[in-house]
Prior knowledge:
38% of the residues lie in helices and 15% in strands. The chain is α/β, with parallel strands linked by helices. The protein folds into 2 domains: 3-209, Rossmann fold; 218-376, Rossmann fold. It has a 7-stranded parallel sheet, with helices on both faces. The protein starts with 9 loop residues before the first helix and ends with a helix.
Amino acid sequence: MNFKELNLSETLLEAISYMGFEEATPIQEQAIPAILDKKDLIACAQTGTGKTAAFILPVLNTLLLENDQPKTKVLVIVPTRELALQIDQQIQGFSYFTNAQSIAIYGGGTGSEWEQQKRALTRGSEIVVATPGKLISHLNMGYVKFEDLKYLILDEADRMLDMGFYDDIQKIISYLPKNRQTLMFSATMPPRIKTLAAKALKNPVEITIGLSKPAEGVLQEAFLTYEAQKTALIKKLIAKKPDVKSILIFSSTKKKVNDIVRGLRGNGYKVEGISSDLEQSRREEVLRAFRSKQTRVLVATDVLSRGIDIKDIDIVINYDVPGDAEDYVHRVGRTARATSTGLAITLINQDDMYKFSRIEALIGKEVDKLPLPKEIGEGPEWKPNQRGAGRNFGNKKRYPRKERNNRDGNNRGKSKNSYQGKRRDKR
Length: 427
């Protein structure tokens, strides 16, 4: 469908054309008319389907028609500061020919940035894009003005719940006018999302687009490797593709990010790592270098698996199999954005075979397991039928049952929730 068929203003159509968009994606085709019709909406769409424009365009269209004094009318809640910055940048692009103003509110900034955020929340910026924690910090100060708010948009809602933001979202909603239009976008639809939707939305239109399937343009491959073979294998794969300019490698932990970066440096191309350990200014610097192709290889934790719009990524490599099958979809979704093509490679050790078999069940496809290059050596056999397949392989030290019990003794009596923070720190 052409954007002209969606009843958007000529000003927005000019901006869309200027940004190089022509045809609407399926989520845009279905969501934009519903939003323009003042309906609450819950949309389930995978990464890379164009859902950001699906809510930005109709909201900007409404703001254009009103054209009154600057007041905060749109609140977009997102899980990470990277996503807040990305959406703010897209808003600036689509609103280039309008007077609409937006601001991204997130943690990790300076005192001057706090003052800038405070001014926007008190004097009025039409669109506010915020992370839950930072917005609550401002709300607690008592000066935030949301009485004119018309739209609440929850983007990457499932990720926000995964990160423990359910109560924060409920608190934010308590500050908002009840007479508003609420839009919820999520890549997956677990039960807690439905619970949140029941509380926040009124008779919503429901849209589901390509749930839990990698984009059609993603060529998926896998290698069965021992842990010690992984870095050497990646070096070999990169060496065979000298023309590839953009490679994104996902690691399960921040410590591994540093180890992988050290292992890949000194091979004639620039390698950088990014995780929550970096200061915000440094993270933005690293991302700019990767976007501009100054950095060829970027190693990251899952902080980048959702919500970061980096175009033209040629290859995504999963150094570790994601712990959550849904996260695989988001990781490989960094390549083959929209209608482009890309390659996703996953390295599978013995302990990750069961997890990867669950991923294959989720996506409804068996991923090709390619043989290792001869110089890397032989890898493990494919044995996915039981949890922890192959745990006796490799260099893991095995302890007698009595000794294992003693080693675990310090963890007894602790609740599962006491480890939530540690797990989040790995992101």
